[in-house]
Hints:
Four copies of one chain form a homotetramer. Chain A is of the alpha+beta class.
Amino acid sequence: MTDLSLALRDLVVANRILASEDVVDAYGHVSIRHPRDATRYLLARSLSPELVGRDDIMEFALDGTPVRGDDRQPYLERFIHGAIYEARPDVQAVVHAHAEAVLPFTITTTALRPVIHSGSFMGGHVPVWDIRDNFGDTNLLVTNMAHGRDLARCLAGNSVALMRGHGFAAAARSLIEVVRMSVYVPRNARALLAATGLGPVKALSQGEIDARAAGYKPHSPETWRAWEYWARRAGCGHLLAKRPVKPAKRSKR
Amino acid sequence: MTDLSLALRDLVVANRILASEDVVDAYGHVSIRHPRDATRYLLARSLSPELVGRDDIMEFALDGTPVRGDDRQPYLERFIHGAIYEARPDVQAVVHAHAEAVLPFTITTTALRPVIHSGSFMGGHVPVWDIRDNFGDTNLLVTNMAHGRDLARCLAGNSVALMRGHGFAAAARSLIEVVRMSVYVPRNARALLAATGLGPVKALSQGEIDARAAGYKPHSPETWRAWEYWARRAGCGHLLAKRPVKPAKRSKR
Amino acid sequence: MTDLSLALRDLVVANRILASEDVVDAYGHVSIRHPRDATRYLLARSLSPELVGRDDIMEFALDGTPVRGDDRQPYLERFIHGAIYEARPDVQAVVHAHAEAVLPFTITTTALRPVIHSGSFMGGHVPVWDIRDNFGDTNLLVTNMAHGRDLARCLAGNSVALMRGHGFAAAARSLIEVVRMSVYVPRNARALLAATGLGPVKALSQGEIDARAAGYKPHSPETWRAWEYWARRAGCGHLLAKRPVKPAKRSKR
Amino acid sequence: MTDLSLALRDLVVANRILASEDVVDAYGHVSIRHPRDATRYLLARSLSPELVGRDDIMEFALDGTPVRGDDRQPYLERFIHGAIYEARPDVQAVVHAHAEAVLPFTITTTALRPVIHSGSFMGGHVPVWDIRDNFGDTNLLVTNMAHGRDLARCLAGNSVALMRGHGFAAAARSLIEVVRMSVYVPRNARALLAATGLGPVKALSQGEIDARAAGYKPHSPETWRAWEYWARRAGCGHLLAKRPVKPAKRSKR
């Protein structure tokens, strides 16, 4: 398989994982920057993520224009992806989701921050973007590059930006990392929400956040274990790149 | 298929979606105004929504009388539907549901209002109807036109009315819109409930509510995507009106 | 089928419904007074309710002694059932459950009371029984008639008693009513719990509780609809006593 | 079957139960001390618990070294198990889990304590271990014996230690007991969390905790009932050690 073929297959798995883990439902999407052309990204046509197959994936210029005259219906909010890729050369994958658990943090003044170890990947600062600040009354959707660039400015160098009354956008160096972050951001949100009212909350220190960022590589066994677990739960076990399990050098028990 | 046939088929799908999305359980119902006669509405006989099939649908005069002497058991609370159709010529579909997430807002003084974008369709004002105000101690059910008309007066020109200690009634210009609203009202309620205690809550502005009402058409791709997603989850994919996916004008990747 | 056969069949369905609706899990049980002998009750042997079949049902004297030397393992807490039947000639069915939603109300001072219409059946007063009051430190289980009679005294003429740090006991005039109550008590508890913090709570008035108690008969269509719905969800549709659906007196649409 | 074979089979069942009851997901693990050698323990290779089969189980020295040169990938945090076995000769089984419900109690000052009867097994004191106290900024994982011994010191003679921002470690005299405790600790946490805000909470007394500890034996019928129930829910009914149900000494009804 070519690197592009592998990328497309993994993007299908990512769609299915995010749907299966309830990070996305009918709405929400995940993209990757094109492995061969940094001015392009790959994102499904307008379809529920759980239905996305390889042939549904479209290719876009960073400004959201489908390449090669592909006239299938794209996601209205694809500009979230293009604007982040444009602003962030380090980012190779983006997720936009409405996951319920984060919604309360998008509409109040309590900051979302990492409080459980798996939440560390969101980083020490999670800005909240409010489209009303620069665009007044809208339908809250990121429907053009002006909106998208405004969101990307708010995201800045961070990994996650909340979108007021809407959801979040997550950006990472790899697809496996953005998916993992997107699964754990809601879990961290739930823990923080539940801890409210139980007393002062002890969050992760910046040092802990940094230690975890340094330690976890995209394909370390621990990261792979979660990807494999989620892929199987999503019915995509057959699409996983196989890591051979070494035949055990052991005597029989 | 005739327009009536299509309407009946969509009403079956609506029943199944509301059951599948946990908006209704054994109780709760959805109706449409008769496409050919504004003085009639279509509503299933007394049956759990997840079991409703085409042959279960009965036809009623607005006062709740089954037409043509159909003597099957109707829903006790059909008067919710008839009274709203009577008071609101603009309304073409009605849902009554007990969805758990809204119940806390029916018994306290905190108003339910849109705080997430998908909640915008409930509008800026969600009145709470309390049957006790005009009827004293009852079994809380809307069992005649006097109750129904009182509820319709409370609903007035709004899209959703909460019913104290009971649930909600939702009214819209189309079936797809009342179903979408009914799925998202509980989700919005959960976000608002969770946000309580995290600080002051930022709700959608009236301008945002209006922008979203203007933007979403009943069969826009975004609205259709949710209907298709929910219908498949409800096992009704085969009943969907097919929208052809344009063969992609694209060169092979 | 004899009345005893029908009673046994319904008791099996009741077990499956309570398990399926998460009112009980590995623990919890439901019994009926013997239809032919008021000094006996019918209750499964010690088995998870979702596994109970007709042949698992044992017969007990009110003091908890299995009749006819049946030496299969009975539930340790069968004394809850016998003591209530002994104290309450009007009661024909009893449920003991640990349903999670009620647990917070068993360990604090906030009273559980009906706030949603389907919660009315618990009545206006739900006492909390604490085994420690009269028995000091125990393992919290009702393991003899002394415990059971103390619980029955606390229950008095009410329908539900909470058991501190444990769950609840529910008693009703019929099996369908005790099952319905047991399904709705947790739902009401969840609504009341969620409403806390949203402002003062409007509970059902005694008049409303009474109106609903007078209105609902054990086999009214509305009560049957829920039983049928829950039985089907529990996979017991085939065990339902069939109510014939009248062939519709209607002209073809 | 040999005692080792039975132990391995039960360990597989334990893995599946913990996964099925959502105590663990991709992460989390359960071990037993080797039935024939107290200086060894048995723990799966690095794999999601729901996938663990008999052949995945590895054997370790207490310091975490795989025996017999088994070079398959072990769990990074196996040191939790080894350090507890080292410090506690009474402990025969250990669980490490991230169960969501306990997370709020790991990051605030409200103590987790038994408030429902099934929570009694965690004991009267549940210490909270914070790796930062003695190790400064880390990735929060127990990745060596120094970490593990520090956790074991914090656990001391208790049954459960919370791990700040991480989850918990549970230790018991038998596998069935550590699994039961691990299933009920989250349930107890949920009840306590929900009770917060409803008034002062009545916890179990030390006398009640002791009475329950004395009463429940690992293979009493009540304990077995839960194991059987959970094993069946996990799809492992076929792996259960069969307890014969005595043929009933009763006349036919």
